[in-house]
Amino acid sequence: MAAERGDYATYWRERAACLREDPDLFFPVGNGGLTPARIHEAKAVCGRCPVVEQCLELALKSGQADGVWGGTTESERRSMSRRAARPGSDAVTPAA
Fold this sequence. Notes:
Layout (H helix, E strand, L loop, with lengths): L22 H4 L9 H12 L4 H11 L11 H12 L11
């Protein structure tokens, strides 16, 4: 277990709801891409995840460009990053 090794920065990943889901749900490969139905299904998993905020924080800090992270799509994270970069703006978190 990562927490036992002292990796406190990432131990939260072991509690992620997506850990037992098919990764293709969040990172589809092929022509299908992230369809509205897949996005909805992936966000539903994120909606019941106890570590969704940590996941989103990681995605924003590391610039994750692909897939659904922390209940957000690529375009939603780009928007959040642009807003956060504006002078005087606060960090934005999505509604789960």
